[in-house]
Design a protein that fits this description.
Strands 1, 2, 3, 4, 5 and 6 form a six-stranded mixed sheet that branches. The chain has 160 residues and is an alpha+beta fold. The protein is built from two helices and six strands.
Length: 160
């Protein structure tokens, strides 16, 4: 593997893992800390830390494609980039939402597609009222999204 390939591989893997994970960061302090090395461990706490600490930010990640472990890994990576030593997790949330029904997506055989004359819909109609065309269908499936949140904590006795 070339040196360029070795250099770009970690970025490609990180983009793949975080590409479909929505992340929101709410900063609690104006102080910026040096990011931790990729090999540094960030602890996943089970309770309030007893050591003196600073709450750096709340990190919230969500995805409808990845599970809780992938979300946890994403939070730990973000905390490492913020220079945090640990994460104090919140309760995981599963959100189920129902889309409005019926909603039909335009397709090849629909009125805007190549075979519009077969069904008699005419020109310039973006959506078909016929849900039985093979390239369309009602999008009435529920969307299930998992969200995980935690507070990034930096211990005060940690060297800069």
């Amino acid at each position: 593997m070339t040196s360029f390939g070795r250099a770009i591989l970690p970025f490609a893997v990180a983009a793949l893992l975080t590409g479909c994970v929505g992340t929101r960061i709410e900063y609690f302090t104006d102080t910026t800390y040096t990011p931790r090395s990729p090999a540094a461990s960030v602890d996943w706490l089970t309770g309030e830390p007893t050591r003196p600490h600073v709450e750096v930010a709340r990190i919230t990640v969500r995805s409808s494609n990845y599970g809780i472990e992938a979300l946890r890994s994403s939070i730990l990576d973000r905390a490492r980039a913020l220079g945090a030593d640990a994460i104090l997790p919140d309760v995981p949330v599963v959100v189920m939402s129902q889309t409005g029904s019926p909603y039909y997506e335009p397709g090849l055989l629909g009125p805007a597609g190549a075979a519009f004359g077969l069904y008699g819909y005419g020109w310039y109609t973006p959506y078909s009222s016929n849900p039985y065309i093979l390239t369309q269908g009602a999008t009435d499936q529920p969307r299930i999204e998992q969200a995980l949140s935690g507070i990034a904590v930096r211990f005060e006795d940690t060297p800069q």
